[in-house]
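Our preliminary data section would be incomplete without showing what the modeling component actually yields. Below, a chain of 96 amino acids is followed by its predicted structure, encoded as tokens that our downstream tools consume directly.
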Amino acid sequence: MILVHNGVVRATARDGQPVAELTVRADRGRLAEIIAEMKGRPGIVEVLVEIREGKLRVGDDIMFVVVAGRLREDCFPALIDTVNAIKRDVTRKTEF
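Predicted structure:
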């Protein structure tokens, strides 16, 4: 099983305000910790993450997360937990 998440800059923020561009910063040290933690889960073979930093425009890719593992029961929770941990602990975004 291989799952992929592709985060994209949306034209509207969660609060409904329009977005023209986004500035993204990432804590690479914390990202490495999250990847190691997720790779240690039973049934998970690989976790890959790419985060684009700097100024991004609507429609640009922000983040790719790939989780590969034995079964969907292993992979789906790992993908969700990886994305949530990255959004909570790794990335800082400023919308303009």
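The CA atoms of residues 21 and 75 lie 32 Å apart. The longest helix spans residues 72-89. Preliminary results of this kind motivate Aim 1 of the renewal.
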